[in-house]
Design brief:
Length: about 475
């Protein structure tokens, strides 16, 4: 069963004031399985008013009380994991095991930020006069407007919501219209954990209408966005006009470098699994595979073997290891990338075509000898496409890794400590994972540089974005 999704404003689940809704489609069957309410301007204003009231209450809860409510929300998320995971798979397409893992990781994220709530430390600065005290304190920034995408409908949202709540902020979350149900169930966990009305609010609707209205609203103090670089730049420019603080987690095009001395078996197994997770619809997915010429053939043999054993189908069916793309737009985009690459001289080593004519299924695709001017080598493919090219020297690999304006995630495999240290320093990326896939843990920073955005959504750095620093200097009377 998939329940229709409502807005959550001021502690109540409500229909949109205009009565409009948006259909939700199962990407494995192309069947409409439900709908989500589509907010009008009146609903957006109601959410802001509720968040203002909620902030007045929530900010005055002790950090320990906020943490207790957050931990209860995490418990509820774990208790409801099976129902939530099924809803996520139905609306977004990823296999049930991935949906279950996403839900459980979200509970860990909430718990981690709950533990950080009492640790928003200030400091005392020694004064130059005996009668003076100099204090630095941290205060919640205010009402947060958070915008999240469909590819991880819970985990992209929960990082923003949990960090904001831990800091004492209230939140208006604009969830993903294509995958609203699981996101709404995450919010329901906070509601059922007795978060006060208005502390968390949830909207769906026309993205541009909601974002432009919230960003320009005088009561909104902080913007957090996850999505494409193009949309992120637009929203960041709007926020700049109104002097709003922003966190931007944008697109990626991650290089994955396999050096001559790497454990090729481990590199292939880990990289291939993470390339095709969620059908490649992952911002930190390895995409540009740069393989040393001396291990290229071995890598290709192992990679092709992995691809041949991927079982594609409905994510609810046992044994499926890769589900469909999330929508029809992704099918058209991936087909365009493949045809353009071939026109530029790339070779299709595996896949390259849509599967059937019902459901948005696409073959795991491996392109080799892809020239740098091919479209897919310059734009984020966001699909099950791996681009494999050879390299000879360290400098050659670094040059290609840093060629693009993206700088979110990058990967490298080597048995040499010297090479590992050198590549960690050389790559222009917010995150570098060497010899394993170690990104996106609750306690570690998550974010990019260059056109991949700025700010952090994990680790101790994340909560700072939701806090104002206030300096107080006081002389005794």
């Amino acid at each position: 069963m998939y329940r229709d999704v409502l807005l959550y404003i001021g502690g109540k689940w409500v229909s949109a004031s205009g009565g409009k809704s948006i259909p939700v489609t199962n990407p494995a069957t192309e069947e409409i399985i439900g709908s989500c309410a589509s907010a009008e301007t009146a609903d957006i204003d109601a959410a802001v008013a509720a968040a203002e009231s909620g902030f007045a209450v929530w900010r005055n809860f002790s950090p320990q009380k906020r943490a207790k409510i957050m931990r209860r929300a995490a418990e509820l998320l774990r208790e409801r994991v099976e129902a939530i995971a099924r809803a996520m798979t139905m609306e977004e397409g990823k296999v049930l095991a991935e949906s279950r893992a996403e839900t459980l990781v979200a509970a860990d994220v909430i718990e981690w930020f709950a533990e950080e709530a009492p640790r928003t430390y200030g400091r005392v600065i020694p004064a130059r006069a005996m009668e003076v005290y100099q204090l630095v304190i941290k205060e919640p920034v205010g009402i947060v407007a958070a915008f999240t995408p469909w590819n991880f409908p819970i985990n992209q949202a929960v990082r923003k919501v949990a960090a904001a709540l831990a800091a004492g902020c209230s939140v208006i979350l604009k969830g993903p219209e294509e995958a609203p149900g699981s996101c709404a169930e995450m919010v329901r966990c906070f509601a059922d954990a007795d978060a006060p009305p208005g502390a968390v609010n949830l909207l769906f609707g026309v993205p541009a209408r909601i974002s432009e209205h919230l960003i320009s609203h005088r009561l909104i103090r902080k913007i957090s966005f996850t999505g494409s670089t193009a949309v992120g730049k637009h929203l960041a420019s709007l926020a700049g006009l109104h002097m709003k603080r922003v966190t931007m987690e944008l697109g990626g095009h991650a290089p994955a470098i396999v050096f001559e001395d790497a454990d090729v078996d481990a590199a292939t197994r880990i990289l291939a699994a993470n390339k095709f997770r969620n059908a490649g619809q992952v911002c930190v997915a390895p995409t540009r595979f740069l393989i040393h010429e001396n291990v290229y053939e071995e890598f290709m043999e192992r990679f092709l073997s992995f691809v041949a054993n991927i079982r594609i189908g409905d994510g609810l069916v046992a044994g499926t290891t890769m589900g469909p793309l999330a929508n029809e737009r992704r099918i058209a985009a991936v087909e365009g990338f493949v045809s353009d690459a071939v026109e530029h001289g790339a070779h299709i080593a595996a896949g390259g075509q849509r599967i059937g004519n019902k459901g948005y299924f696409f073959q795991p695709t491996l392109l080799t000898d892809v020239p740098p001017d091919a479209k897919v080598m310059n734009e984020e493919p966001f699909g099950p496409i791996a681009l494999v090219n050879r390299f000879t020297t360290f400098g050659e690999a670094v040059k290609e890794a840093n060629r693009l304006n993206y700088g979110l995630a990058s990967y490298a495999y080597t048995r040499s400590t010297k090479t590992a240290t050198a590549i960690g320093r050389a790559i222009e990326s917010g995150m570098v994972s060497i010899n394993h896939h170690g990104l996106a843990l609750p306690e570690t920073p998550f974010g990019g540089v260059k056109d991949s955005g700025y700010g952090w959504e994990g680790g101790a750095e994340a909560i700072d974005a939701y806090l104002n620093t206030k300096f107080i200097t006081q002389a005794s009377g």
